[in-house]
Amino acid sequence: MTKPAIEMQAVNKWYGDFHVLKDISLSVEKGEKIVICGPSGSGKSTLIRCINQLEMHQKGHIYVDGDEVEAGAVHPALSQGQIGMVFQQFNLFPHMTVLQNCTLAPIWVQNRSQKEANDIARSFLERVRIPDQADKYPAQLSGGQQQRVAIARALCMNPEIILFDEPTSALDPEMIKEVLDVMIELAVSGMTMICVTHEMGFARQVADRVIFMDEGEIVEENAPQAFFDNPQSDRTKLFLSQVLSH
Amino acid sequence: MNRRLRRTLTWSRTNLFSTPANALLSVVSIWILWQVMSVSVDWLLLKATFTGASRVDCLKVDQGACWPFVSAKFSQFIYGRYPDTERWRVDIIFALGVLGLLPMIIPSVPFKRLNALFLLAVYPVLSFFLLTGGYFGLSEVETVLWGGLLVTLIVAITGIVMSLPLGILLALGRRSELPIIRWLSIGFIEIFRGVPLITVLFMASVMLPLFLPEGMNFDKLVRCLIGVTLFASAYMAEVVRGGLQAIPKGQYEAAHALGLGYWQSMRLVILPQALKLVIPGIVNTFIGLFKDTTLVLVVGIFDLLGIVQLNFTDSSWATPQTRITGYIFAGAVFWVFCFAMSRYSMFMERRLKTDRR
């Protein structure tokens, strides 16, 4: 039995008095694809941000690859760049070219040579279908292209897990598909993925499990088929009727 | 010819005389400009004396600038009381400085890394040994003899070069999550910003020796350099902090998510963006610092302005126009340096602009 990629045990977090995560327990196997959905403010982003230490939980335990995530120390998987993250606002480095964005961490975190890092970056840029944009600056690209660079940048670290925090929410509608296509391809390749997203079509197509969160709790958790066709909780039903109706 | 005249007329009609109010403003402005220009040109050139050997040459009726005063004292203005026979050492340092700086500031010249190494490591050490002497058969020249533009440049350049890294560290310290580091940074910044530079210089030159153990004493110029550097770095810290605060949180998060450590993310991701944003503020501080160097006079160090003023007391050049000639000369020198910094910073800003289409 291999260790789960991510294991959460009764995780709690407060922002002041606001109880943002309530007793979250969740286990993600290697290669599993999880989609987390839920209304805004339900704690889904906070949940995945606790995995790579952008936020710190206050109670409970989080294990990544068997090692506990603890305050005051950078988790070994994170320090080696093994937990990739793709943000809603892309967060590319505007003062670097696309290629430099992709080679920065391989060079400085994984001590790769410039040439090696360039080769890796170019191969991933090819995979996200923007090899010809390598020498442009992020501001010269469209939103969809920027998000694909952000995915390539995460992939260049050869991560074990990639966290997606609403990757298509800041995109113009016509660009959502190009990003989702890349994510689907990535899912098919066997990457462990946790995606916070409202793209229900994507969830249906690639997720192994769909998790619905509301008010800091996991309300419902099921395989996509069962989740969409036969939701159990009233809150899930209401949410689904709202996101699927348009 | 006729066509050009017509174009000029069209231009002035649309730009200067489009409405009665506009026309009035234009006429008044041109009149003021004419007054200023004619008085200046009169005084600086037409009524000025250019050659002469002493005050008698500058005592015409309706005398303009007395330039022979400047040319007679020129070398003093540059070197202060640095001994005549040793001034070649200063010349070498000036020349090396220009030779080192020029390729550094022209972006297309290669070997920037080596160049920076020369300017930041080799050049200061070389300058120190060559200017102070006492080694390698060079006679020792005490810093009390240094003066003029030499001292102005030493104080300004040391202050500029040292205050930027120090200011960056203080700005990072002020935003640190470690309380002791944060408190120390805030304390340092607020104390040095809250005190006039004159006070800092007095403290450094008069008070500091009282606190040091007996027998331990270091050079007055060095103490001034430290004072000026600390003072400027407090201002620099706040400028840099402004830049750090303007960087979106997502940049810090993306760097963190890629596994970059604190210093790596600062050096590679945050500071390059933050510093670029605050180039105008940084250069503003540099220019302020450059002009503030004149205050070293209060502790008995004669910078360019100090040495010019000192020469007003020379009775062989006492004329009604000596003072103003000297002040205009000193002002012009300061202006040239400050204006150059300002233009170069604007050039860099344009060059580094990558985050816009």
3D architecture notes:
The complex is a heterodimer of chains A (246) and B (357). Chain A is an alpha/beta fold and 246 residues long. Chain A is built from 9 helices and 10 strands. In chain A, 37% of the residues lie in helices and 24% in strands. In chain A, the strands form 2 sheets. Chain A has a 6-stranded mixed β-sheet with strand order 6-7-8-3-9-10, with helices on both faces. The radius of gyration of chain A is 18 Å and the shape is globular. Chain A starts with 5 loop residues before the first strand and ends with a helix. Chain B has 14 helices and no strands. In chain B, helix 3 crosses helix 13. Chain B is 72% helix and 0% strand. With 357 residues, chain B is mainly α. The interface between A and B is medium-sized, with 30 and 23 residues.
Residue windows where pLDDT falls under 50 for at least 5 positions of chain A: none
User: Would you report the number of β strands of chain B?
Assistant: 0
| CA-CA gap between termini of chain B | 42 Å
Counted by DSSP, the helix tally of chain B is 14
Radius of gyration of chain B: 25 Å
Radius of gyration of chain A from CA coordinates: 18 Å
Assembly level: heterodimer
Strand content of chain B: under 5%
Q: What is the CA–CA distance across the termini of chain A?
A: 43 Å
Shape of chain B: globular
List the chains of the largest interface with their residue counts: A-B, 30 and 23 residues
Taking the sheet with the most strands of chain A, its summary is:
6 strands, mixed
The major sheet of chain B is characterized as:
none
Helix coverage percent of chain B: over 70%
Overall 3D geometry of chain A? globular
Q: What fraction, in percent, of the residue positions of chain A are helical? A: 25-40%
Percent of sequence in beta strands of chain A = 15-25%
| Rounded average pLDDT of chain A | 91
What would you say about this model in short?
The complex is a heterodimer of chains A (246) and B (357). Chain A is α/β, with parallel strands linked by helices.
